[in-house]
Amino acid sequence: MKISGVDIRPGNIIEYEGGIWRAVKIQHTQPGKGGAYMQVEMKNLIDGRKNNVRFRSAETVERVRLDTTDFQFLFAEGDDLTFMDKVTYEQITLPRDLLGDAAAFLSDGMDVVMELYDERPISVQLPNTVEALIVEADAVVKGQTASSSYKPALLENGARVMVPPHIGAGTRIVVDVYEQTYVRRAD
Questions:
Q1: N or C: which terminus of the chain has fewer CB atoms within 10 Å of its end residue's CB?
Q2: What does pTM read for this prediction?
């Protein structure tokens, strides 16, 4: 499906210069002289390259629809992650860097959504939030106000997030997987 260059939104998958790209960030610019354009930061879903491109309203790009399939994460072995199709029980092994920083939040048996292009996996979507246990948290500095100060904490998976001062080691919290930020205390 063709869309105008100024209609690109973050998360859109587009075909550009023979590659498949995901729009990461966009900025609409309307200069005083000349036509408006959309500055798009894109990431290549095949090889991971990043690119900044300006699209004018007269330009069109092909928007790509990806097939999505439900998979379950089984285990990690070195830098390889093994997933199982929840319908056919077929197993697939992917490199850890395909998931980026979100790979640290994978847990055995976690349900994920795999995006496929021409039957080839190009991205894995985890749940937006997960529960995690804090194993180490810095002490609160006396005199800091609770409203504006956060302290670093180490999670059981090795990731670091900033948490409010009243959260200590041994507490289960909900973490935003993609922003790697504290959301709330777990129930």
A1: C
A2: 0.67
